[in-house]
Model the fold of this input.
Amino acid sequence: MQFKRSLAVLLVLALLLGAVPALAEYNMPYYIEVDLTNQIVTIYNTKDNTIARQMLCSAGVSNKTPTGTWYMPNKERDDERTEWYWMPNAYTWVKWPSKIYYAYFFHSIPFNRQDDSTMNEKAIAQFGNPASHGCIRLRVEDAYFIAKNCKVGTRVHIYKSGEKEEDLRALLYVSSYTGEDGMSYSEFLGISEDDLGRGCTGNDVLDLQHRLNDLGYYDGAYDGNYGNEMVSVVKQLQKDLGLSQTGISTKDLLEVIYSDDAPVSTGSITFSESQSGPVVKQLQSALKTLGVYTGPVDSVYDVEVSEAVKTFQNLCGLTADGVATPDTQHAVYYVLAKVQEAMGGEEFTISYDNEELATGRVNCSYANILVRSKPNTDSASIGKVKDGDLVTVLATQDGWAQIVCDAGVGYIYKKYLKNAGTTYNYIVNFTSTSGKTYTLGATVEQRLSGGYSLAAEIRSYYSSADFMDYLKDATVSYTTVNTGSDDVSLNLRAQPDAQADVLSQVANGTSMRVLEKGEEWTKVAYNGGIGYLMNQYLSFWQGTSEDESDVLASQSGTSAVDSEMIDAIVILGEGELRANIYAEPAETASVLARAPADLSLKVVSFNEDTGWVLVDYNGNRGYMKDANLSFSLGPTEE
Done:
């Protein structure tokens, strides 16, 4: 085992760059250092200059937080250093404000109302980066500590260190250092002289990475380096075990990790075929109890397990790809708990119902196909299907096919379907010895009537406040816009709805933090605001807060893409030979031209409410209905 002491030294030195010894006459118990470069507040014990508390913050944008040294003054308002405080200049509520100088305070992240449940989402998304008018925003508990413990006269030194410490920022993004549980600051950093911890390298670390992956905790590189990701993963495992979260793999902890009773994480990493280990064994056992897997519980993720996962995903209304994503794992264990609760601890039997359904595969290689709410081109679009998509066909009539796809139930032209086949919709029935029942899955009729919402129920549970601690880890979810072309932007919507207001157009390649990922839409933080993007044009990835600067840099370079750069291809309805281009956005207007199928046009603007599209053809402009156009990731593509 090799330990990189240089890393530990650098980390500790970074914390002390702005710290100077207290003055001889200074008699306050603490003094405070604020590093604006790293957005870190460190509170030192005056007695011995040790760190009492350390936290991430959001100071002022554009150098609005002044640098210098101040001594915290007496209160000017009675509600300073109290639970709730109205900031009149910012029109917002904050908690536990403590004045630093003039109108600059330490205080909590802002709240929309005097209500704990209304913490400002935009401010949450910005946390750890400059965001305020000059005050220093903190977690509520950190603001409380300063208000109650840092007395009038406490020295506050605000400075710029000039050198980013991303590992430290990543740790503080997960939690502040408080020392309240007896944890030393070195332990918080994951540094140990005697055990595996930050800076260690070699085969011992490599073996541990593989074992943590087998347990469902680690999904990083197998490089034998005990870096920030390893510290964070071990902290999560320690949290699950109810241990002090140091991120250090002591000898006692390693015995637990390598034992048969090692904890198994549910929903921390994605795994599929070729994965093995306890995390697979646990999944196999759960799927077997749920009646969708009949193979051996042997810890190997093979084709049979993949097919069982697909079956379960179908039953829950999830994308059936056979991959055990965190969402799928959450659903498995949620449903397992529901079944066990419904059965009340009794033995139960499993029976199956099934419906035979017709299927077809979408055949249109040059464009995505609009799915209509009714079998006509005047009806609203509910989404799109693309070439190669397998859909369930409910009925065909007058050239239209009623299909079930990810967007819901709707209609497309029958000519866009090929390779007719059959599939089965399974329903699993659980019945206890005393007659208690639980049903997993739904008939097509139930799905059509909107009465089946297990997927929504699962998502709601796992996004609830009570469950957020379980999901919280040191990784941060990001996404990058992937429209396929730098000339094509993506609409940022005010709500997760294709008809919602467009807040901005996001350029291809732009990255942002994920606030909440849904089945079709993702809530993101973009350019200081909050909005929604459609998942099919996003690439998701995991990082830490050290990636935040690159993410923000990608946003600052984005701008709205000129709509004239967006391409559209003419498509024709059943029996149509050409599509009309009108002088005005009305079918009663004069026809300027008649466009053949597959003609490529440039889109100038698009009115989603009326469905009229202004197009450029041969230097002239006219209007077409969106039903006759397939956009190559243009304005109707989210």
About this structure: The mean pLDDT is 82. Residues 155 and 216 are 46 Å apart (CA to CA). The two ends are 50 Å apart (CA to CA). The chain is about 25% helix and 30% strand.
